[in-house]
Recover the amino acids of this structure.
């Protein structure tokens, strides 16, 4: 599912008209789709009291189509528009033919307050992607009125048509009067600003509605949402005559006296996504602790510089072992001691004989101290920074990075020739060739120590099973987030701990393969496997 800018969406609509799908058809399809989503959300629209806010442009036109369909299904529909639409507007004419109650003009009219007090649903169809300037006048005042209503009548459902009015579709910035929607039905393709903060907080439940645009019109767009269908297509096959070598061997190294659990979580994350064999190379004094817990893992004790800290010379052992593996994960719990830095530097810098490489956590913090570190890591590698680590790697402030996550990740991947996983709400995966994939899920439960180690293990395990750097990162990010969604469904969004994710990873893989997971683009994939 492509993720678009305003300019790209306008170009797609222009090209749609050229191939026989004119704006009138798109508007009819859009309005019907939104009306159907409202019906699905509410459950029954007969007698439902609905107020639709009609703007002057195409977004308002879509809203008129919504009004017509909801009215025809038995809803009590009321319209408010600050300015009357042209008499030549066919959708406005159809609304008037049905005698749908319409209020035009200032919000100070007495009937506005009466209308608002009775509404069960308010549809925001004021402005769509074309509005970038500040809200003003009666548009602003009406949105403020509705916002106040939702504070006093929380049962009133706010539906945003395409996006909440006042949300910038490109960068996620919001006007102070932007409504917070319960449901946003975005049209044709999702817009980037819906997955960028602060705008993402105003979206509520997001649904992407198909409005009849031919798929090939977006082929030249290289930013996408990660979908269950897409992940299903890249998951490793599981032949019935397999042995553990079929599913790859992953070598994991890292850990220190203060971060012992990180390695356990990474190892189990790898095993839970189906890796055939995981070997763990860890400081000798930590070996006995981890061996009693990670019983399915093969262990390689390493020499220490001090208790619990890997010695720099341990890299010779790792280099010999690495050749026997399909992938190598470095960094979980490693720490930033002098010996850890020596170990990492000797192991990967200026070495080009390593297997598929994933660098996480303190491996990134150590690299950030090396000028132009990426030139010393000659091969492609997956790197998995959170915003703080990305800030140290790029020299950009966290606030700047967070305001341009997709572009920052794409530029870093291109300039470093690395696959970048920029973690956080709506994790971004960027490939050196310019492809970007955005995870459409944000779960506050994942803001918990150790969840990143599970993610690193999952991506490393998929690398070991033969997926490309980009595909391993995309699939790992998605499976990790969906495992968290399963935990949230059972426990809520507080109290999730990293180990809760582990048993949910294989369940998520099963659900993806069976086609029972639903993405924001609509119906689940039901084709099976």
């Amino acid at each position: 599912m492509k993720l678009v800018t305003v300019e790209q969406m306008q170009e797609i609509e222009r090209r749609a008209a050229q191939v026989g799908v004119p704006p009138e058809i798109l508007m009819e399809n859009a309005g019907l789709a939104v009306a159907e989503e409202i019906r699905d959300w509410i459950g029954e629209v007969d007698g439902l009291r609905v107020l639709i806010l009609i703007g002057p442009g195409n977004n308002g036109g879509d809203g008129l189509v919504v009004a017509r369909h909801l009215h025809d299904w038995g809803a009590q529909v009321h319209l408010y528009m600050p300015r009357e639409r042209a008499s030549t507007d066919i959708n406005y004419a159809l609304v008037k033919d049905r005698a749908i109650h319409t209020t035009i003009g200032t919000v100070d009219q007495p009937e506005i307050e009466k209308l608002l007090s009775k509404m069960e649903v308010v549809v925001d169809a004021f402005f769509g992607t074309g509005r970038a300037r500040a809200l003003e006048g009666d548009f602003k005042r009406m949105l403020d009125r509705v916002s106040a209503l939702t504070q006093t009548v929380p049962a009133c459902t706010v539906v945003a048509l395409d996006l909440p009015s006042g949300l910038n579709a490109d960068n996620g910035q919001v006007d102070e009067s932007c409504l917070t929607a319960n449901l946003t039905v975005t049209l044709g393709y999702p817009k980037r600003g819906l997955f960028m903060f602060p705008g993402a907080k105003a979206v509520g439940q997001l649904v992407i509605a198909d409005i009849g645009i031919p798929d090939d019109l977006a082929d030249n767009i290289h930013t996408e949402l990660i979908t269950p269908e897409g992940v299903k297509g890249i998951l490793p096959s599981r032949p019935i005559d397999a042995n553990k070598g079929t599913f790859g061997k992953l070598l994991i190294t890292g850990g220190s006296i203060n971060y012992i659990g990180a390695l356990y979580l990474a190892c189990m994350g790898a095993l839970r996504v189906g890796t055939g064999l995981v070997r763990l190379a860890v400081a000798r004094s930590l070996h006995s602790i981890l061996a009693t817990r990670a019983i399915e893992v093969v262990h390689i004790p390493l020499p220490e510089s001090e208790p619990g800290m890997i010695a720099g010379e341990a890299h010779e052992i790792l280099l010999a072992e690495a050749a026997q593996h399909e992938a190598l994960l470095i960094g979980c719990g490693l720490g930033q001691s002098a010996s850890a830095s020596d170990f990492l530097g000797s192991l990967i810098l200026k070495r080009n004989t390593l297997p598929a490489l994933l660098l996480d956590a303190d491996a990134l913090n150590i690299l950030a101290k090396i000028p132009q570190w990426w030139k010393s890591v000659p091969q492609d590698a997956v790197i998995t920074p959170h915003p703080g680590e990305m800030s140290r790697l790029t020299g950009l402030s966290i606030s700047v990075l967070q305001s341009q996550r997709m572009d920052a990740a794409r530029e870093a991947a291109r300039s470093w020739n690395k696959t970048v996983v920029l973690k956080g709400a709506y994790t971004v995966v960027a490939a050196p060739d310019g492809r970007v994939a955005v995870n459409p899920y944000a779960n506050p439960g994942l803001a918990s120590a150790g969840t990143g180690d599970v993610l690193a293990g999952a991506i490393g395990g998929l690398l070991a099973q033969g997926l490309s750097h980009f595909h391993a990162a995309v699939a790992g990010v998605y499976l990790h987030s969906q495992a968290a969604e399963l935990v949230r469904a059972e426990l809520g969004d507080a109290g999730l701990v990293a180990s809760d994710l582990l048993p949910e990873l294989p369940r998520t893989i099963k659900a993806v393969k069976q086609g029972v997971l639903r993405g924001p683009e609509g119906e689940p994939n039901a084709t099976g496997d």
The chain has two domains: 6-221, 244-514. The domain at 6-221 is CATH 3.40.50.10260 (Rossmann fold). The radius of gyration is 26 Å. The CA atoms of residues 2 and 221 lie 7 Å apart.
